[in-house]
Design goal:
- Part of the signal recognition particle protein translocation system, which is composed of SRP and FtsY. SRP is a ribonucleoprotein composed of Ffh and a 4.5S RNA molecule.
- This protein has helices at 3-17, 24-40, 45-59, 62-66, 70-86, 113-126, 144-155, 168-181, 199-212, 227-239, 257-266, 287-295, 298-307, 313-324, 330-342, 345-349, 354-359, 361-365, 370-381, 385-389, 396-406, 410-433, 435-441; strands spanning 101-107, 132-136, 158-159, 186-190, 216-222, 244-248, 270-274, 282-284.
- The protein has 444 residues and is α/β, with parallel strands linked by helices.
- An eight-stranded mixed beta sheet has the order 3-2-4-1-5-6-7-8, sandwiched between helices.
- Helix 5 (70-86) crosses helix 13 and helix 10 runs parallel beside helix 11.
- The longest helix has 24 residues, at 410-433.
- The two termini are 27 Å apart.
- Bound molecules: guanosine-5'-diphosphate.
- Residues 107, 109-115, 193, 248-249, 251-252, 274-277, 281 line the site of guanosine-5'-diphosphate (GDP).
- The site of guanosine-5'-diphosphate has 18 residues, from helix 6.
Length: 444
Amino acid sequence: MFDSLSDRLGGVFAALRGRGALNEADVRAAMREVRIALLEADVALPVVRSFVDSVTEKAVGQNVLRSITPGQQVVKIVNDALVDMLGSDTADLELDVTPPAIIMMVGLQGSGKTTTTAKIAKRLTEKDRKKVLMASLDVNRPAAQEQLAVLGSQINVATLPVVAGQQPVEIARRALNAARLQGYDVLMLDTAGRLHVDQALMDEMRAVSDVSSPAETLLVVDALTGQDAVNVAKSFTDQVSLTGVILTRMDGDARGGAALSMRAVTGKPIKFVGTGEKLDGLELFHPSRVAGRILGMGDVVSLVERAAESIQVEDAEAMAAKMAKGQFDLNDLRQQLAQMQKMGGLGALAGMIPGMKKAQAAMASGAVSDKMLIHMDAMIGSMTAKERAKPELLQAKRKIRIAKGSGTTVQDVNKLLKMHQEMATAMKKLKKMGGMKALMGMMG
Ligand code: GDP
């Protein structure tokens, strides 16, 4: 469902990440594109505004622009802001009350309220082993009560028997009594829908809420209706105290605006999304996964997270200065190894940063494993300061001593020295291309 938004943002960030250095104007230009992409995805204007403002403010900060990987950092900032906008955490049902816990379902006609009632009942029965009773309070639509009974029989969940002529509040009372007497854990009240938000609907909802004191009041809205879904949610929020929102038809080709604006506009979490007509088409809403899907850059985000402050501009600049003098000794190698380990080891790095692969071909060709990283660190640790600074001192005798000291073999020590040699050569070549900055630029 977020396909076109994802495509557009992907384009913006590919352009940003392709560059080694960024300035404020680059970031502002990219943010203008982000703004258009969000508006086209039907995200509410005030939400777009505050999103773009907050991301811009963080992204033009000195730390980002001066970092070695500004493009990636900006992607990370956008990702975090998306997660924030979507509601940080998953929000499951909170039914921790004296049973029966009441779940009141509200929403407009056709939003998928009755179907979603059955979906939740199925989930509670099968996953949480709860004893659930469903009751339809919809006396306006002739077949509504029967529809719920049919769904109930499909999933083996009890429904309250229909008594002709009863009004919603009476039905709610009867359902509550039945649930208490028969020891149900959860009672689901499927209230009547309307075509539009109107006062009679709201009054009825409040009356039902008063007699049943629901633990959850869930609003069901159709994601395909975009901005309208958000407006409907806003009107309901003003009238009853909702505990969450469920967006249906997320399997359709909605542009995503409803999902993205809901939290900011209503202050309520999206608890579930409906992903199909079948009764198992219900999923908990995961803000971080959705943000990841929208950006399609999960790898970049997790890499930046791990690298976080582990690579400092100052370190990189000091390294570049040494390289400029043609120095890259074993101390530098050791520092690099430590950094790799901090970032999750070689396995995590491999593949994430194609540009780095070349510079580390030496390591890759030696099929270096994470265990070997630890060995290498031990070997370098067994050397004297002089040896580290001047690897050419390391002749046979010294190699034997180092192998013994680090619990490795002379072959291992040779491998380490060969790798260092190759890296030093690679770095010298890189220096000609622009040094460390160029190397890190390739990380995009
Ligand atoms: P109500 O009037 O709000 O109770 O709506 P219904 O539960 O009767 O649903 C209206 C239609 O939407 C039915 O045909 C449902 O099968 C369909 N529907 C509900 N939820 C979803 C969903 O998440 N995805 C899809 N594709 N269809 C849904």
